[in-house]
Design brief:
CATH architecture of chain A: 4-Layer Sandwich
Enzyme class (chains A, B, C, D): lyase
CATH topology of chain A: Chorismate synthase, AroC fold
Subunit structure (chains A, B, C, D): Homotetramer.
CATH class of chain A: Alpha Beta
Helix content of chain A: 25-40%
Number of strands of chain A: 18
Number of domains of chain A: 1
GO molecular function (chains A, B, C, D): chorismate synthase activity; FMN binding
Oligomer: homotetramer
Family (chains A, B, C, D): Belongs to the chorismate synthase family.
Radius of gyration of chain A: 21 Å
Largest sheet of chain A: 5 strands, antiparallel
Keywords (chains A, B, C, D): Amino-acid biosynthesis, Aromatic amino acid biosynthesis, FAD, Flavoprotein, FMN, Lyase, NADP
Distance between the termini of chain A: 33 Å
Largest interface: A-B, 113 and 113 residues
Structural class of chain A: alpha+beta
Order of helices and strands of chain A: EEEHEEEEHHEEHHEHEHEEEEEEEH
Chain lengths: ~350, ~350, ~350, ~350
């Protein structure tokens, strides 16, 4: 259960890291949208492993096949099914996992929940599951683009190295200009060095991805359970390794007084009602106010490390384990397109819901 | 839209701050559960305004009526409808709101979304909406209690005053022993002083609520979109004024390396597989691991302040506004039962879903 | 579970025949719709018992109260909660039901499912549950009316007495011109006589309600599971006492060949593509084609009869039972507004869904 | 939208008749269920075209591939994705469809809804869409079998030829003993002759499929919208070409009085509460009563015929059309596994929902 996300623009993902493949069904996509395989593959390439020296050396082309829902380069309005075959599996890398639980992985909880587990990899908890999300996100982004909305994510912080980035002006080109996806070029250098150093130690690190949506019209979102920030939180907190979520001022905002924190209104030169500050992060009462929507997501250090750790076998016997497979010392660079995808899917769903209920 | 939450244990809330009343329909509650009106009212009383000198002086008894779903003190398995009438309304306090947008409130976004707004209060964004959640939470807590699960929330921080609380041992009695609901008695005193001082200034402050679930069996949650942390994040990020969410190590965990962060396994004296640390916050891969589930929620300073602020009218004319109504200088003490309620509803829903799919 | 219906225009009903009351929450209603209590009450009055000599003599005013979602005569876009209090209960009429199962009622299945039952009436299986549906239907009808859609139901057949009615021209006035709601005045007389005669015998009869939607734009509905006829079938088959559903040619259409059954296309004087016949019932491939949508619903004879019947007690002891309460000898006249309501709710939901996905 | 069905046992289908393939994702399947590809393929073979002289001569092996969710012959509890590739397409058979609407097909309504259409076949309205349903049904049947439930469908009537079949004793072997799937051998002969004769004329015929579920425990279903008969109606009315649905006495039951129609209770030799008759069709108040659940579905004559028919082109020009492709003169034999699949999916979903809410 729980493999479907969204209400009108709705995605369902499937697939384990090992087996026939992974993919997604996108239901509710507006018809007649022009979208090419290349646009989808572009995002998958940003997500795939082996793309640079700081990601896992596993080589997976992650070439996608669109099984349905497209005709002559346009969406039909019917389900778009996208499949990526699994390749380059090395089950021997995982044989120990059949009997030994990896610390801070889902092996033990899978056994507790299902009483069965495909130990030849991470199962549904593998980062490969996010392939379907990223593919769906590419389509959501295209819909949003036509509505004037642009979504840009980037690495804000690696461990304690924090980049200086202006979310109001940052561009995709800046993000993609280096392999760590931090638009602050100087900081990016230091981040890359740190990741390489940690990787050589057989250890791992985490950090924070920030993501901005610009051009979102006022009025998206709902006042109660489906607040925009609530759906965004659910979307990104369902990504592997995420441990925290903020919108706008976030946790730091709790250190201000109301008079310091409130976003005062003014009318701009175009006669639009705007806010002087944006501590709300573009959302007030769960509904977008046309200011930039700004979120941050905390990703823990990768659980798979080559250092030896204390653990237990499936029958409870204590033992030690050191990962042998090929893994990312830091998921952050590859998490950027994932966060963007979830933000795009949430906003696209709310765009259609708003049109459905309120007719605009 | 978006007024329903949960999949098997499912709640739908209704009602504005002004009008006939507010309430909830709880669908999917197991039958034959013993629950009294007093148990529901107990939680509503923890939430209601006017309960102490540091909450709004509005006097609202918030007496609930159960319209359906109970018979001779037990649940029928059919929808439980609970209604709380609105009282003590002073529309004159709000007349200015018909034409002037309150900064960091939802007035402007409601107009953008719906093109209409009940200006006699906060509408669905009023904290009164949470009455339905807290009532439903009382029932969810009772179901969880029978499954051995206990949920305790408390104020962890007010502005920069942080209490020392052990989530593994904290009790409801400790939480309820002071009006700010911080179990660290010394810190609580300082918090109360600070809230009173800020209130006298016509300003407001925020902080952090922490909430723990103890005794959760391993196996609750889902591996992908409906990860336990994702549903918890959605639940609490849909509460008014929340700006951030963390589980386990949260944002601070991003400063550790993997070898520092991972929760190593061991087998305890009862032969149970446990983790040495709990940076995962009781959830691995979206599924509970039987350790305590620990979350934190950031609440911004109350938007309503008596200080004069710059704003605009509905037609865009710039003006100033100072709130005249009776409001909380700090929502945190009353947010505690709200966070507990959302956590209880999420865990109860997953308990039933797990039983449905996996039969245990 | 299962007390919610609809996807964008979504209703949740609550309440038993005995207890505080029954009602509905309507979520997803478009904002700024003008709707008065009188318009809702009009439909409830068509549904209520005691409205004529051929319905149950129970007197229930069924006066509705709108608790939320309306402001100055217009919808707010937020949940509309409607409550009708229970009155005129005579629990003594039902005391035997605590221990004896009524044949073809839900008493026994409730006990099997929930292990508990409010024996003071029919619980959720009471026709009172449909109050919420009819109230929601009044609002759905108003939305549809603004889109040019009109829904008219009527009694087509009572037992073997079948009225001659033209669904393309029948009017509400014709339907309401007699107490049995059959627009064929001559047949209506005979139907009324038959119902009275059967009622005097302490027995009951059933029949068929037909319902037409005129002016439905082409394009509503979905090609697969949410076909218009599938959602209509679910809607009306969830009404108490319904045993069968047809759209267009229905079961009789299975006696024709394809060349006899197919609806050939032509272009009318306005240049619109139309069909010569309408055996499809206004829906092709699950999607409306702008022809009139025509459905029929079979309602069994009322289960409650004053004749003595063989039955068992809750502990399985065989006994006999004859109903003592006041009941309808025929539900058909009161079923007409129920069928209309469900058809309106389904079409309204699909209207909003179509606008959401396809933008028109 | 609308490509997902079910609440806990939930399927999502994808794919057009032309393109990469068709398939299904099954979410919520209980873990550790033993299921083989052969068991799934068995049902697909009952559905596939070209299986006998009375079905379309199109040869489609419809070989399925399980992409995920199975491991070493058992379900993992995660999504089961099943893909069947498209083959043997003859787009030239359909070229006329690009510009000419086939009577009683969905071509025109697709254009009205989406403004775009894959004219190389029936798109989502193709019977190929049901491959995913039948594959999912095979799994649902296996789950039900372990709960003691058996589902058997058969052709009850072809045009006016009605077979004599006892739903309480009919076996799968009897159904599969002839190519028309009517267990009344004599009638089956006449049905086959009639279908061949009609096929030679380039025409088509319809009929009625009856389907029984035996061994269903009492207590499945819901009292209001998700009544068992409502979900069954939706399930089968979403199949291509279905025009009507009945449960138990159906439309014929409306000709009886209440005293004739009611199912009196008695206690059988095992002490079980049973009903003397089964006009309720195994469901009372939306909930199963442990008697056999019996439904009937009307299927119209196949819309595709080789006889010349009046129609219009996409720009409204009147013309004539005679189908050239290879089609079934009667869908009934292949509809049997489709009806069984939908009934199995509905019952399986309610089995899990009942366990979730009521714990049994």
């Amino acid at each position: 259960m729980g493999n479907t996300f969204g209400h009108l623009f709705r995605i369902t993902t499937f697939g384990e890291s090992h087996g026939g493949g992974v993919g997604v069904i996108i239901d509710g996509c507006p018809p007649r949208l022009e979208i090419s395989i290349d646009e989808i593959q572009f995002e998958l390439d940003r997500r795939r492993p082996g793309q640079s020296k700081i990601t896992t050396p596993r080589k997976e082309a992650d070439q996608c096949e669109v099984l349905s829902g497209l005709f002559e380069g346009k969406t039909l309005g019917t389900p778009i099914a996208i499949l990526v075959r699994n390749k380059d599996t090395r089950p021997q890398d995982y044989s120990e996992m059949a009997h030994t639980y990896r610390p801070s992985h889902a092996d033990a909880t899978y056994d507790a929940k299902y009483g069965i587990r495909n130990w030849q990899g991470g199962g549904r908890s593998s980062a490969r599951e996010t392939i379907g999300r990223v593919a769906a996100g590419a389509i959501a982004k295209k819909i949003l683009k036509q509505a004037g909305v642009e979504i840009i994510g980037y690495v804000k912080r690696i461990k304690d190295l924090e980049g200086a980035v202006n979310p109001d002006t940052v561009t995709l080109e800046q993000v993609e200009s280096n392999i760590v996806r931090c638009p602050d070029a100087d900081c990016a250098e230091r981040m890359i060095d740190l990741i390489e150093q940690i990787g050589r130690q057989g250890d791992s690190i985490g950090g924070v991805v920030e993501c901005v949506a610009r051009g979102v019209p006022a009025g998206l979102g709902m006042p109660v359970f489906d607040k925009l920030e609530a759906d965004l939180a659910k979307g990104v907190m369902s990504l592997p390794a995420s441990k925290g979520f903020e919108i706008g001022s976030g946790f730091a905002g709790t250190l201000l007084t109301g008079s310091e924190h409130n976003d005062e209104f003014y009318t701009d030169e175009q006669g639009q009602i705007r806010t002087v500050t944006n501590r709300s992060g573009g959302v007030q009462g769960g509904i977008s106010n046309s200011e930039n929507i700004l979120i941050r997501v905390a990703f823990k250090p990768t659980a798979t490390i080559r250092k030896e750790q204390r653990t237990v076998t499936t029958d409870g016997t204590e033992t030690v384990l050191a990962a042998k497979g090929r893994h990312d010392p830091c998921v952050l660079p590859r998490a950027v397109p994932m966060v963007e995808a979830m933000m795009a899917i949430v906003l696209c769903d709310h765009l259609l819901r708003q049109r459905g209920q309120c007719g605009k």
